[in-house]
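Box 3.1 A note on notation
Throughout this textbook, protein chains are presented in two layers. The first layer is the amino acid sequence; the second is a token string describing backbone geometry. Keep the layers aligned when reading.
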Amino acid sequence: MLGRNGIRRLKWEPLERLAGTVGLSVILVYLIGLGIHISGLPMWTCHGITLLSAGLLAIYRRDVVSLLRHRRTRNLLLMFAALLSWILLLLLVIRHNTGGSWCCDWFEHYQRSLHFLDRGPKNQMFLNLYLLPARPPLMNVYAMYGIAIAGRDFSVYQVVSAFLDCLLLLPLALVARLFSSRGAPFSLLAALLALNPQFFENSTFAWTKIPTAFFVALAFYLYLVGLRRASSSHVVGAFVSISAAMLVHYSAGPYLVLMGLHYAVMVPRRRLWRQALVAALLSGMLLATWFGYSVARFGVKTTLESNSTVTDSRRLSPRDNLLNVRDNVINTIVPYFMCDDFKPKGELRDVVIDVAFHAYRNNIIISMGSVGGILALLLSIRSLARRRPRVPLSERLFWILGVPLTFLLGVASHGMRNPFGLAHICGQSLTYLGVAFLASQAPKLPRVLKVLLVHGVIFDFIFGIAIELYLEGSTAEWTRSWNWLYKQDNHLEYLGDVVIGGVALWEAAIFAVTIAWIWAVLRSLGLLSSSPEKPSPTIESKAANTSSS
């Protein structure tokens, strides 16, 4: 509710107000939390954020009721609750993280959240590798607020992280309307996220990639709609949002570059100088809250050079860096099991597990789904090749040039060669934008392609989620990785360790909810006897929606 007062006076549609309020609220919690940390105020003052939110909820209760009268808003919130409940249900059976070479990032960000809570020493080394300026702090400060309120246990941190991750559904529901005049059915979009192995892995790994994608998706929607409508509030909000994404993880940098370059062309053409000044001022002020603090405490050199991208790249010559970029681009597009580096080791069981893990997490196409990724790629090429009168040329160029630009910059920003690919680092925002695009197009596909998509979703769940869930719920020695050692050495308890209830009960619940998600996909695609779910209204119907709310 913190962001409600900043959004309520804007002439935004109900769904835009919902996503904007949530995004602004997260930013305000970060600003207040960082202020508490820096000022030395006792951490019990974090309860003031909760009290302030409750007070604002009471003051603006009529606005909230008015927003909830909007049917689409209620439906989207219901799908958000369903998605969050699903991720929490999965966390109930997870005892440790495992898979590929993924290790330790979840623990680093938990350490960082505790650092802000306990006001740790200036020279604290996270994972014995990184100083504080190596990572931006927005998610960590938000998690600090959560654990200051509910307890410092790792299981509490997992719940806070899952909540932030599931917020991604809100801006994706808006983004889908950029791709289709009717948007996407909310239940279909939520189901495709819930059954997506990339989303599953990252929402249970408790790190910063999905919250980054939340702000990137929100920024893209606000920016493109702002240009369509000549709305300064949308464009300014977009740059504030992309700046917030940078404060969650620096992997948002390529998306900021894309928006900045595109806007630099649009400003002189449309004489948007005043709008650009306001956007630059507010974005700069938000970024300064972290970079100003970091420079004042650690100095310019440490602030700019402690990130792993800089430290890794400095070890190599310019030629070796370019070769790494070339190899990483290829490895991120071509599945690992099709590359020369692929050399199966161990039993067939281990080979299948590793191939599935790296394909879904590291490959930019398969990360959208084994079938869904191919469909999204082909449909996007067809859509961009067509001329649609309602879509401005500048917007089409934004996607035509922007997707390859952000992909290449994202891969180039990773210092070391990764033989498995890098979709899990800077490509996740593209993955989820692709899922939103697929959800907007899927209801219009021929029946045979709809059936193929459903089979792909089921296949993805089995090989990308169910197998991984079994491994992470088992304590057998062969399922463990370095993550297990971090858990044991630091005496951490996962949510699956502390919640009372038999594993069989939670597994039965997971099976039942999985069937419900698949049913939602079938229903949304019109493959059941009941009529297909109607997607959200067109962007062009904003006036009617706004007046009715």
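The longest helix spans residues 447-473. Confidence is low (pLDDT under 50) at residues 540-549.
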